[in-house]
Every structure is written in C-alpha cells, then in structure tokens.
Amino acid sequence: MKKLIFIFCLFGAAIPSLSQDNSFLLYSFKGNVTVVENKIESAAKVGRILTSNATLKLPTGAVATLICNESAMFTITKKGSFALNQFGDSCMVKGGSVSSNYVKYVWAQMTKSSGSPGSNRKAFMNNVGAVTRSVNNIWIDPRLDTMNYVSGDFPLSWKSYAEAEDFEFFLYKSNDGSPAFYKTSVDKLKIPISKIAGQMSQGNTYYWTAAVKGEENEEIKTLNYVTKETYETLLKEIKAAVGAYESEAEQAYRIAFMLEDLHYLSQAYDHYVKAAKLAPTNPLYRSTLMSFKKDYEIK
Amino acid sequence: MKKPFHKHVIHHVKRAHRNVTKYLYERDTIFATIWVFLFIMILSFIPSMKFLNPVKLALKDFDFNDMAYAKLEKAEKSKFDVGDSGKIVIINIGLADREGLAMLLEKTASYEPKSIGLDVWMEEPREPEKDSILAAAIRKTPNLIIASRFKPGKGKEEAEYYHNYFTQFTGAEEGSVNFAHEELATIRLWNAYFKHQEVEYPSFALALIKKAYPDEYEKFRKKGKDKLIINYTRRTNQYQVINPDDLMMGRVDSSSIKGKIALLGYINLDPNNIEDKKFTPLNDKYYGKSVPDMNGIVVHANIVSMVLEHNYIKKLPSWFIWLFAILIGWLHMSLFIRYYLENHIWFHLVAKIAQLASAFFFVWLGVHLFDRYRIKLDMKLTLVVIVLAVDVIYFYEAWAVWMHKKFGYKTVFHHHHH
Question: Fewer CB within 10 Å: N-end or C-end of chain A?
C-alpha cells in the first residue's frame, strides 16, 4: 500500500511539470507577421514574450524565429496560423553533456573515413563560387555558376524561400544591368537548358537568373554555350590523360568526374549515366549518379 | 568453482597496479623522467628552430579546451540572454553612416536601456553635417560609452591611448574596444583596464558595467584583477540581436531593450563575411587554418555576461601544471620501463595503447574540469611528456649503461639486451 501511495505521489508531482506552460520569445521575423493573444490580433514585435496560448499568423513568404523557455530556438517558414502550444517538442533542449559529446566525437573521429575524390566527389570538387550580396527569396546553387553547356537536356534549378508557385526565368547577353533579352514564366523550380538553347548561339557567354514572379533577383549566374569543337578537343585531352589501362566504365566515371570539375555538367551527367550502365553492379558508380541527380535536380 | 566477477576485476586492478608501480621508486625511473623534462627544456631553448617547427607554430594558439566549444556544444548549453532574465541586447548597426548611427542611437536611447555602448571607432572628422548630428545625439545620451583604443607598449616602446574623435566636444565617456592580443590570434584574455601615465583607462565592457551596474563594478574592482580569461558562454544568436530596420520601424518590443545594456555594433551572420570578426574559442575549427568567427561586439557581450553572472574561469598556476606533468610522466615512465625490461616484445604495443588512452583521458579531464568547474588545466605539457617518454627510454638506456661502465652507476638497464 505504501508503495502504491508513493507511486501516486510520484505521478502527482510529475503531472504539473509535464503540463507546464512554455514561454516563447519572438526572436526575429520577416514579413507581416501578426500575433493573436487573448483574442486580440496585433503586429508582431521583436523581443515580445508570448505564452503558449498565443497564435502566430504568417502570410506567404514570412519567416518567424522563436526561442522557447530561453533554451531552444526554432523557425517557422510556412504560411498559416500556428498555435504555439503545438510547439512543445521544439522546447526540448537536445544534445547530451559535454563529456558524452566528447566520447561521441572521439569515436566519430576514430571511425570515420576521410574519403577519396572518387567516392566523395563534392568534398574534392573545384567549384567556382561567387559572392552573394542581396537578400532575396531565390537561392541558386553556386555550383550552377560559370556552367559550360554543349548540348543535352540539363536543368537550371533554384530554391525558393517564398511559397510561390510562379517564377520567371531571365536570360541576359551581358551582366552590365541591361534588360534580359529573353524571359519566360515557369511553374517549377527549374528550367531545362534545351528549352532556352534556341535563344543562344554557340561560342557565346550568357547570364541568367530566376525570381519569384513579379520580383527581381540581382544574383546573376554565368552560362557558357561552348562549341562542339571546343568540347571535343577537351574530351580528347581528358581521354588521353591516363596512360594505364582502364575499363570503359572506369574511363566513363573518370571523364564524368573531370567534366563535372570543369563545369561541363550536362556532359558529366551523360558520362555518369554511361559508367553506371556499363558497370551496373558497381555501388560507387550508382551512388554517385544518384547523388549527382539529387544535387542538380535531375528527375 | 568459478571465480566471482568482482574478484576478476580486483585481480586485474592489482595486476595493473603492480605493472605501474613495480619500477616507480627505482632511481632509473626518476632519472629517465628528469631526462624527459631536460629534453623539453633543451628543445624550448633553441630559438632558431621555432620558425622551422610546424608543430610548435600550430600549437601556439591551440587550446584543448576549445574543443568543448567547437565540437562538444558547450556554448549551446547556455541559456539565451533574452527576455526578462536577459541583461544584454545587441543592436546591429549594419552599414549605417554617422547620421544613421545618430538615428539608431537616439532610437535606442528612447527605449531607456541601462547603458549604451557604441562599438564604432571614429578617429577623425568626416562629413561636417553628419558629424554634428552624431555629436548632438551623443550629447543627449548621458548613459553612453563610446569606443576608444589602447595600444600597450612593447619592451621600451611607450603605450599609446587614442581618444574617440567625438570625446573632445561631447564629453562622452569612453572604453577601449581593442584587445591586447597578437594579430590573428584567438581572443582569450580581457584587460579590464589599462594604466598609462598614472591614468586608468577602462575597457569598453568595464565602462558599460560601471554605468549600468555600479554595484557589480565595485564587486569586480574588489577582486583586484585586471587580466582575465574570457569565459565565452554564448554565440551571436544566443543574444537578442535587433536589426536596424526593425528598430527604426518600431517593430521592437520595448521590454527587449528597456533596463538592459544595449550594445550597438556591426553584426553579420554570413560566415564568409569576416568584416570586424575575431577568432574566438567558439570557432568551429579549433586547429589549423580557419576564418574569424565572431563579431567584436559579441566578444564584448560575452565579457559583460561573464562579469554580471560571476562566471569566471580559474586558471591553475604554472607550478601546478608542471607538477601534474611530472607526476603523470613519472607514472608512465614506470610502466614503460617495466615492459621495456620484462616484456620487451609487448613494449611498443603497450606504450602506444597507454599513450592513446592517456591522451583520451587527459583531454577529457581537461575539458570536464573546464566545463563543469570552469577550471582551466593546460594539458599540452602533460601530453608532450607522455609522447616523449617512450623515446627518452632508449636514450636513457644508452646513457645509463655508459655511466655504469664509466662511473659504476647502478642501473637496472646494465644487463638488458634486446
């Protein structure tokens, strides 16, 4: 009986702590975010403390970052009304003690492999990056900058921070701020180059960007439309680069890797596909192809 | 009958104890340990080797405890300095010019913070109109601290103090914003104040504390310390950072500034933007080449937090670090000599395992003491001693045998051949 009373007492003590109200602080926000508290709707303010009974309303493109119980930070990026009492999970502080993290870290260091260019292509890829200055709703992967295109159906893709459904693609002849010579509307987060190839002539450099419909994006990426002759010469050099014997699949994989490094992404893709087809049982070729497709939004 | 488990454990512990202590009080163990330290001293006295020694150069700015921040999420365990319990708020000045700064200053002051710190070094006049606007704003803000700079003297070189351009005609109070550290080195130490020609110049953080919390200032001064290790407890986003647009457009709740120390400085969270960023122990990369990780204003914020929370780091004295290294080196030497003489076939394997296990344990011990008790025990010397001990045994054997032949020196090594 004593034990039963003890257990009940234990539960009794635990229940209030489980149902304890969380306190939220609006750390930052973007867009016209509003707060509904005690049935009164008001504009959000940075640093405002909210109870778990409050509701946060976010329109399209708005973002709000909150701190729960001065311990855990989380961000809401979706449009809609959010009652804060549904974010109880976000109030939990993750991670173990420093000592347990030390053991995990040492173990990870002792067991993880540093990889090699062949198996971890992204870690060794010599990508050309570019500075990003303005803040806008569209993010274009720097790996798509200074891309060399010869032929094929390769997508130019981007990511949107706004929940937009329509986007505009702009193609420029120069990067001096002059207006786009070609623009088109798209309802996806990518456009195949083959769709715009007719607007370009080989041997020239073009510039492109994408924006949420009605908005502008100052971040411009370079696209070199390379002639077939230039590419053939390069391919010949790459093929001749290794004197030792290599199988057709090995050669295709090596060429793909080198072409990707040189930003011939469409041609690199063709060769990754070729390597995977020639050696279908090779897990490295297959996983690299899958990873490449994921990186460049190839479906 | 099978032996109970605890007896197995006791048996192995006793065996390990025997292995370590069998040669502990032998003259050879003590002398070999002394030789390890002689080697360390000899190596450190070769100045010309310094620039050729990549290990020494790499370790110059290295601290094992940095791992606690970089990889073990020490800072992430701290509560955010926000809300009712928060004492600091950072106002990002962005790329504002002097007129913009005046507007931000006036707006911040209207929220009635305890004190305001403007972390902008203004050495000379610029556009007269904008300078006048800023000067007027500074005059109107009695609880403001503006930035000055102090250059400590080196050797015979005189120390220099540089006033802010606006001090002379606004009468504003100053605090030096720079840190006395080597160029591109990690900022670890805080000089609370500098003395120059019998005049005491407070640092930016101390001047702010004096304005906002006079009692805390007095408590700190009673400690009588002017140079402290900075206890970094928070990353940038663990402080309430307010963007200039939000402040100017009234999108800030008054409670987030009122009654707090408002720090006006440049913040940029882009890791590729290194403008006004310093190297701190919170850098994700705690060894080798890296990029600066924290804006100067956040370093000041961490210092203010440390003083207000009485969260100081206690550094163990050098004599203790040497004593600790001697003790650990002696124990290791005893174990190594035991295997060197009696089980030479296992010597290298045991030595390597012992070195690895010791490195793992002592780094953990240092990190644990630092995290839990804020005690800083520098483990570098101890680990160097453990590493050198194995090589020194070979040298010591040759030296002891030579001494034995020449002077009849009694040694356990004289019959030993391997």
Answer: N
